[in-house]
Design brief:
transferase, ATP binding, about 280 residues, protein serine/threonine kinase activity, binds adenosine-5'-diphosphate, about 35% helix, binds magnesium ion, about 15% strand, two-stranded antiparallel ribbon, serine/threonine-protein kinase, alpha+beta
């Protein structure tokens, strides 16, 4: 197969001016860059080849390039050098989900419902295209721009299988958003994303994570048993509808868990049960 889209470069700095670092993980760094030829700004994700020795990256990139959705950060282009792969991504400028909520002051169930609906639509689309994100968490939910009503964009999808992102970062970081079956080492499915969306909804509504334990063994065991609660007084004023919605997503049994379709039909998303009352 000839990959007409793959471009080789001996030095990526011939193609882009580097503006500043936007983030980094164990396998990658993300920079804001300006394409010299066009003057256009992008987010460039740089992956070291040595971490991807036997991966199926080219297949995955091919899939990611076909992904086009208004709530998914687009992959625009792809370069490789001797040492690195470079993913040229649509640049979004509104910042991460939680940073903005902290600034906002007023936050309602309706606000949370609006965000979660967009995430569900994005993830439904990924699932329709046989992509499991596997690393859904607030840092990967970015606002499109700085407008107050900016849409939310899902980023960082498609590579988690290759990078063993979920499980690896679990081993060294916080497993807070990872589904029970992932921690149990069982084969994972689309349902892992639905669990994570449940956890994100939980945090949006109360400001703290459903699982928190100093002791990692205990933390893992709590997640694997789906042992969480809606504590008083923090959850007292949250609607039963919101709690029901979360229970259906944070369902231990992956086969009983809501799909994105079901979640999108739930009244807290599709109806008017999300309260309009400030919750922070
Ligand atoms: P990692 O593999 O390190 O998680 P990400 O793709 O999530 O890499 O990027 C790390 C950080 O860089 C994100 O949390 C976000 O703040 C920023 N970022 C990533 N992609 C974009 C983008 N397309 N536009 C703007 N910022 C981005
Ligand atoms: Mg990320």
């Amino acid at each position: 197969i000839i990959c007409s889209w793959k471009k080789s470069t001996s030095n990526i700095k011939d193609v882009f001016d580097f503006k500043g670092k936007m983030g980094s993980g164990s396998f990658s760094e993300v920079f804001m860059v300006k394409e010299k030829k066009t003057g256009k700004l992008y987010a460039l994700k740089c992956l070291e080849k040595k971490h991807l020795a036997h991966s199926n990256l080219e297949n995955e990139i091919n899939v990611m390039r076909r992904i086009k959705h208004e709530n998914v950060v687009g992959l625009e282009d792809f370069y490789e050098s001797q040492t690195h792969y470079y993913l040229v991504m649509q640049l979004v400028s509104g910042g991460e989900l939680f940073d903005r909520i902290l600034d906002k002051g007023i936050y309602t169930e309706k606000d949370a419902s609006t965000v979660i609906k967009q995430v569900l639509q994005a993830v439904r689309y990924l699932h329709e295209n046989s992509i499991v994100h596997r690393d859904l968490k607030p840092e990967n939910l970015l606002y499109y721009n700085t407008d107050e009503n900016a849409k939310i964009m899902v980023s960082d999808f498609g590579l988690s299988k290759t990078l063993e992102h979920g499980v690896m970062s679990t081993a060294c970081g916080t497993p807070g958003y990872v589904a029970p079956e992932v921690l149990a080492g069982k084969p994972y499915s689309k349902a892992v994303d639905c669990w994570s969306i449940g956890v994100i909804s939980y945090v949006l509504l109360c400001g703290y994570p459903p699982f928190f334990e100093e002791n990692e063994t205990l933390l893992f065991s709590k997640i694997m048993k789906a042992e969480y609660a809606f504590h008083s007084p923090f959850w007292d004023d949250i609607s039963e509808s919101a709690k029901g919605f979360i229970r259906n997503l944070m369902e231990k049994n992956a086969t009983k868990r809501f799909t994105t379709e079901q979640a999108l039909r739930h009244p807290w998303i599709a109806g008017d049960t999300a309260k309009d009352l400030n919750i922070y």
